[in-house]
Every structure is written in C-alpha cells, then in structure tokens.
Design brief:
This protein is α/β, with parallel strands linked by helices. It contains eleven helices and 13 strands. It folds into two domains: 214 residues, P-loop containing nucleotide triphosphate hydrolases (Rossmann fold); 66 residues, Alpha-Beta Plaits (2-Layer Sandwich). The strands form three sheets. The chain has a six-stranded mixed beta sheet with strand order 5-6-7-3-8-9, sandwiched between helices. Strands 11-12-10-13 form a four-stranded antiparallel beta sheet. Strands 2-1-4 form a three-stranded antiparallel beta sheet, covered by helices on one side. Helix 3 crosses helix 4 and helix 8 packs across helix 11. The mean pLDDT is 91.
Length: 313
C-alpha cells in the first residue's frame, strides 16, 4: 500500500434503512497512524458509518475504500486486517478470559503456538493476566471492555474500530482504558472511534468529525474546532428558577452584549475571552447568580453552537 493513501476514504457515503436515511452523503479521510473520531449524540449516524467501515453493512450509495480495498468485493480481505470492538460486549461467557482470546485468534487461522503467545501478551497489555482463568461473568464492566479490546487486537490489525469504547464505565475505568488506547496509537495502530463524550474525544483524537442527523457539521483537530467555533472561556451562570420556569430566558436579554449566549434550562452560558470579566459585569448590573463557573471551552460547546443541543441530549 502507498504510505500516503488513506486508511479509510469515503466520498458521498450514504446509508438508508427503508425510507430513513441515517448517513446523508459524508466525506471522510482517515490517515495511517492517527486516532480519528466520530463525535455526536445517539442517532447522529456514527454507528451506521462504523458498520459500513467494518464491512458488516453495505453502503447504500457513495464511494468507500478501506485499506485501499472495496468493501463490496473485498470484504473478507478487509475484515482480516481489522480489529473491531463493538459498543456491546460480544465476549463468550462460556469461556474463561484466556480462552476468549485463544479461540478468537484461531478463527483467523493463527497457529496454536502463536495465538497462545499473543493471548498472553495481550492479557499483560490490558492488565488482566491475573484474571486469565476467570469466567467473563466474574469481570467488572471495565475489565470486560479491556478484554474486548484485547480480543480485537489478536490478529494484529492495521485498523482498530471502537464503537463507544467507554460507555457505562466509571471514571477510573475510563482513564485506564484511555491509557491503553493512547499506547496503541503510540505503537502506530490507526484508531477510529465513535463517542459522545467530549473529554474522551479531546484526550484521544488527533482529528474528528462532529456528526448530527446524518451529516458532518464540522471537521478538524479538537483544538482547531474549539478555536474556530468557540471562545477561550465560558462563564456559566445559574439563577434561581421562577414559578413559570423562564428565569434564564428572561435574564438573557440583560447579558446579550457580553458575548454569545446559550440559554439552557438550568443555566446561561456566556462565551467570552475573559469569563471573570463576564461575572464582574453581571454583578455590576445587579444580577445575582446562585452559582457561577468559569471554564475553558470544550468540544461540547462546539457541538452546542453547531446543532443547538448538548451531546447527551
């Protein structure tokens, strides 16, 4: 393969289910060795796109090339070089931890000695060596996700697909998984992931696309997207709720000259280069928030501007 050729190339890619179009003509390039993300809420078209890339769901229209090959004619050759970690764990509960890796590796035709060696290496990589004889049902949620990732690496894939890799995990388990994914990227594995966690995308992705309702709303590195679509800081202002529940809507008119506003049900977001100045001017106008917070802009702010809703809607 030519080094400069994208690992994934999509042009006008579409996916329909009956009369519903889940993916509406997107263009995507994923470069070798990068971590690329699809960011967006549930129903944005992320998982449908990933299933097409994984060659388990045919494209309705458009052009798609994976590893330089056409999924319509080269599906088996592509799948042999992919690692796939689906959103839902598909581990075999009848097998212990080690055998989940061993048996899966044998599906790829890897000889017994080699697959045993790889299984041991992967258990060490995901910190599950001491659980090698444990049943899957005995593992915590974080351990199951780590085992799923280990299994997706048995065939030493050129491209690793991760669909919502940390959904449902506690913060500590998420950070352990982030460290392992970062190490994979450092080792040269190309990662493609979907997520609706903006902090996950910022931590792991070199580039990403923001998807909403089947289209790409923006593309770039996390820093580029924040610089282009948001401000350096955000002041969050919370006020007491009135009887009719319209407190924030009513007060927004008194703040609109301080910067771009987003009025949410529980708070007002004021986008500015200086959040502390926003708070000072709010007080000068006789307004007394019950709580204030100044923070840096995040990808969630980018998504809120582009789509008018938060990532977790």
């Amino acid at each position: 393969m030519i080094v400069s050729e994208p690992m994934i190339r999509a042009r006008g890619l579409r996916k329909s289910f009956g009369g519903f179009e889940a993916v509406k003509g997107i263009d995507v390039d994923v470069r070798r060795g990068e971590a690329f993300g699809f960011l967006g809420p549930n129903g944005a078209g992320k998982s449908s796109t990933m299933r097409m890339i994984a060659t388990v769901s045919p494209a309705t229209a458009g052009e798609l090339r994976i590893l330089g090959l056409d999924p319509a004619t080269d599906g088996p050759a592509i799948r042999a070089r992919l690692g796939v970690c689906p959103q839902e764990d598909t581990l075999d509960n009848e097998l212990n931890v080690f055998d989940n890796l061993y048996v899966y590796g044998r599906y790829f035709g890897i000889d017994k000695a080699t697959v045993r060696e790889r299984a041991e290496e992967l258990l060490e990589f995901v910190q599950l060596t001491d659980k090698r004889k444990a049943k899957v049902e005995e593992l915590s949620g974080g351990m199951k996700r780590r085992l799923s990732i280990a299994r997706s690496l048995v065939n030493r894939p050129d491209l690793l697909l991760l669909d919502e890799p940390t959904t449902g995990l506690d913060p500590q388990a998420r950070h352990v998984l982030w460290d392992q994914l970062f190490r994979l990227k450092q080792a040269g594995v190309t990662l493609v992931m979907t997520t609706h966690y903006m902090d996950e995308a910022e931590q792991l992705c070199d580039r990403l696309v923001v998807m909403d309702k089947g289209v790409i709303a923006a593309e770039g590195s996390p820093r580029e997207l924040i610089e282009e679509h948001s401000t350096r800081e955000v002041a969050e202002l919370r006020f007491g709720v009135s009887d009719d529940g319209n407190t924030h809507e009513l007060l927004a008119g008194k703040l609109e000259d301080l910067g771009r506003l987003e009025v949410l049900p529980d708070r007002i977001l004021v986008y500015s280069a200086d959040g502390e100045e926003v708070i000072a001017k709010t007080h000068e106008r006789g307004l007394e928030p019950v709580a204030v917070l100044v923070r840096r802009s995040t990808l969630e702010d980018v998504f809120l501007k582009l789509t008018g809703r938060t990532l977790v809607d």
